[in-house]
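Example record

One chain of 322 residues, shown exactly as stored in the release files.
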Amino acid sequence: MEFDTLDLRLMHALEVDARAPFSRFAEVLGVSDQTVARRYRRLRTGAGVKVVGVVDRPRLGEDSWILRLRCTPDAAGPIARSLARRSDTSWIGLTSGGTEVVCTTRSSTTEARDELLLGKLPRTPSIVEIQAHQYLHRFYGGPSGWLGKSGALTEDEVARLRPEPGAYEAPVRPLPEDEPLLAALRADGRASVAELQQRTGASESAVRRRLDQLVGSGTVYLDVQYDGPSFGFGVSALLWITAAPSALDSVGRALAGHREIAHAAAVAGPCNLTAVLVCADSHEVYRYLSETLGRLEGVQHVECAPTLRQVKQLTYEEPRIP
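Predicted structure tokens for this chain:
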């Protein structure tokens, strides 16, 4: 299935305000409501587009880690799928010839962190090496979607779509009773208030009020998942970067401004920066590494690990067996 400029513009619009009505998208994009609805359905079925409500755990001060698990050749896939079923994991991919699993995980308690990092994973016989990098600071990613760097929408169009700023300066910490609402948003971030009411059992006014609090405070943001190759972005890779300590912040900020970088963060561990690189092909990867990244002052070492298979983005569905 082929996608065109209008599809990319709609994707960018979703990233700006994923819960906006189709009529608003249509007005900004200069097409009919029916065209927007039809294109959105096509993107869902043909490019795996899905709007997902995400709790911004770093904003709440919760621990987040990125794990590199070197496995025996026959075990990487099963281990990746097992981790994908956990509610405390998000991005999971296979790299390095299919023997390395890279997994992002967050822990709300020290006990939960230790159970995974010091208990379950080290006891798994087919995992032969574990590297754990703790997230320290996010330079780009999370609420800042990568499609914003595409330029598909003009600055004026983005301004017309951007929702009004929330009235909350500090994050609103989710409560246990918020879980049905959060689960419904993970399933469909564009679900209407009426649909959320049906799924949670709360009144529409209560749902609307809590939704405004969680989203308006930045505790929850709406992320757009999609299949990159469908839009011509056929190669993704993880970058493990060591920068001089005095250049850590400047290199991280530079990465955040690069068109090819979808996520960048400072981490503690064997390296001090990690980033997600998205390119059209291997030639573009080479140009980025040798020219853009290679010329940054303060970069001392770079490891580039192409992603062979993405097992989980923010949500996971078991593969269907024919």
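Notes: Strands lie at 50-55, 63-71, 89-95, 100-107, 127-140, 220-225, 235-243, 261-268, 273-279, 299-312.
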